[in-house]
Write a structure and sequence with these properties.
The protein is mainly alpha-helical. The chain is built from 3 helices and no strands. It is rod-shaped.
Length: 75
């Protein structure tokens, strides 16, 4: 039996997993840096940070889609 094909597939899968992990880290860092610039309450900032870190990739994408803004009517 020749297992060279299985070894190649294994390394391909490992490389793809590393790329997904790297994409998650980059998306999370960019979103967290963007979150620092938003003028929102500390509670909202903490919830967004938790969402960005806990929900891989989708948390950061949700942050970019929603783009939270300060509520001027309250103050």
């Amino acid at each position: 039996m020749n297992f060279d094909g299985i070894r190649w597939v294994f390394w391909l899968v490992q490389a793809l997993q590393c790329l997904v992990l790297l994409a998650w880290i980059i998306c999370a860092l960019v979103a967290l840096l963007g979150l620092r610039k938003q003028k929102i309450s500390d509670a909202a900032r903490a919830l967004w940070a938790l969402l960005i870190v806990v929900v891989p990739i989708l948390g950061a994408v949700a942050f970019w889609i929603v783009k939270p803004q300060a509520d001027d009517a309250v103050g």
